[in-house]
From TrEMBL:
The keyword Heme does not apply. Residues 28-507 form the Aminoacyl-tRNA synthetase class Ia domain. One of its GO terms (cellular component) is cytosol. GO terms for molecular function: aminoacyl-tRNA deacylase activity; ATP binding; isoleucine-tRNA ligase activity. This is isoleucine--tRNA ligase. It is an enzyme of class 6 (ligase).
Length: 507
């Protein structure tokens, strides 16, 4: 049979029939590196419009995973597309080299700083460990075909980088915006440190849920604020027995730090007459939760003697349930009727919402708990106890004081440490804050005039129509101007960042 193959004018190619990418890709990378392809792109791009991709750095700890790969490949596509579109689009990779995960891994090898090694040796070990992780991840990213200046990445542990941070912080200090305070954070007593939101996992946990009386100290102050149910106040119309505001909490151990009781200004509250374990009493709680609450107490025979709005209760003085001190009733929009009594135990040192409302009322940010989760030596009644094991003792003290209304076990979702898988606490710790309001007197030009980071902000105009510099506008206003000047894709990103900036008191 005649073979006509040699008579056909077919296209010829050097491409192999099989991809064999596992072998060919390294050869392609080697060729690109040998010809300095990235450097040639930078040379060709000189003079063109710049496109800069701000790359949030990966963390220098462990091998890369699929999330790293997707992130880097998508960004690489954008940079290469912009290059092909005629832009000068350099890409400088970087790594975050600071943080607890690095320290924990180093501790496994050399021990804790100040215990088995000195702080200087420990820091150097952390630096060496981070550099090793950077080197490994860099090779993996290069293997993905990502173009970049891999020989000159930015590292947060570079001395120049750290020095620039110090210089910037110095400008903030000179401007008078840095101040020290306390703020509650997620705290792992096993780690002995604060946790970021990303380091918190939620697991089911059985907690002790209790209802607690806060005795009203001046009953006469209540009746001038309430609306009676029938007739005029007087005699039995007010009911009988002591009056208390009742709170519900799943963290009894936070009661030693209580500074107030919060109610919602727009909710309706009832003064309820019922029979308690010690005789007749009157309890103040949200009307919307009245039936559920009294059912929880197993009290069927009760009646409402008065109503009032939450706003009417503001300023009432209550007795602490086991300490000889008084606490105020305050107003808080975070109070809901989803559970509890509608009256919220408020400890600014142990909760974010408590902290925010406490700042409004200038409440102390009291934290009687040490970094190991143990009550400090000067904590009356509970000194030396581990907080998550102190709940039974707190309940015992409340019962002895006659201020425990109800106790029950509750299964609910609770934050846990992602490393130790153990329950965490909210605990106020000393923090440094950058105030969002105020002026920048330290940012001055040669003539003593205030200057913004990049000059004067024309959108912030004074009486004479002149732009207001950052030293006059404050950080918040300056940031809001920059947000408006930035093009956002998608649009909702602008609203999201504005919402984060416009109401926060500090950073």
């Amino acid at each position: 049979m005649t073979d006509y193959k040699a008579t056909l004018n077919l296209p010829q190619t050097d491409f192999p029939m099989r991809g064999n990418l596992a072998k060919r890709e390294p050869e392609m990378l080697k060729r690109w590196q040998a010809m300095d392809l990235y450097g040639r792109l930078r040379t060709q791009g000189e003079g063109r419009d710049k496109f800069i991709l701000h790359d949030g750095p990966p963390y220098a700890n462990g091998d890369i995973h699929i999330g790293h790969a997707v992130n880097k490949v998508l960004k690489d596509i954008i940079v290469k597309a912009k290059t092909l579109s005629g832009f000068d689009a350099p890409y400088v990779p970087g790594w975050d080299c600071h943080g607890l995960p690095i320290e924990l891994n180093v501790e496994k090898k050399v021990g804790k700083a100040g215990v088995k090694v000195d702080a200087s040796t420990f820091r150097q070990a952390c630096r060496d460990y981070a550099q090793k992780q950077v080197d490994g991840q860099r090779e993996d990213f290069k293997r993905l075909g990502v173009f970049g200046d891999w020989d000159n990445p930015y590292l947060t542990m570079d001395f120049q980088y750290e020095a620039d941070i110090i210089r910037t912080l110095g400008r903030i200090i000179e401007a008078g915006h840095l101040h020290k305070g306390a703020k509650p954070v997620h705290w792992c007593t096993d780690c002995g440190s604060a946790l970021a939101e990303a380091e918190v996992e939620y697991e089911d946990k059985t907690s002790t849920a209790i209802d607690v009386r806060f005795p009203l100290l001046d009953e006469s102050a209540l009746w001038t604020r309430c609306h009676h149910v029938e007739g005029r106040f007087g005699g039995g119309h007010k009911g009988e027995g002591p009056v208390s505001v009742v709170i519900w909490t799943t963290t009894p151990w936070t009661l030693p730090a209580n500074q107030a009781v919060a109610v919602h200004p727009e909710l309706d509250y009832a003064v309820v007459q019922s029979e308690g374990e010690h005789g007749p009493e009157r309890l103040i709680l949200a009307e919307a939760l009245l039936k559920d609450t009294m059912a929880r107490y197993e009290r069927d025979d009760y009646r409402v003697v008065a109503y009032c709005r939450g706003a009417d209760l503001e300023g009432l003085k209550l007795g602490h349930p086991f300490y000889p001190c008084e606490v105020p009733v305050i107003l808080g929009d975070h109070v809901t009727t989803e559970s509890g009594t509608g009256c919220v135990h408020t400890a600014p040192g142990h909760g974010q919402e408590d902290f925010v409302v406490g700042q409004k009322y200038h409440l102390p940010v009291h934290n009687p708990v040490g970094g190991n989760g143990v009550f400090l030596p000067d904590t009356e009644l509970f000194a030396g106890e581990y907080v998550l094991k102190a709940n039974p003792h707190v309940v015992e003290v409340l019962r002895a004081k006659g201020n425990l209304v109800h106790e029950a076990a509750l299964r609910h979702s609770y934050p846990h440490c992602w490393r130790h898988k153990t329950p965490i606490i909210f605990r106020a710790t000393p923090q440094w804050f950058i105030a969002m309001d105020g002026v920048y007197p330290g940012l001055v030009g040669n003539k003593g005039e205030g200057i913004a980071m990049d000059g004067v902000y024309p959108d912030l105009v004074g009486n004479k129509g002149q732009g207001i510099a950052m030293d006059q506008a404050g950080l918040r206003q300056a940031a809001m101007v920059e947000i408006e000047k930035t093009q956002w894709m998608p649009d909702w990103g602008q609203a999201r960042i504005k919402g984060m900036i416009e109401n926060r008191p500090d950073w």
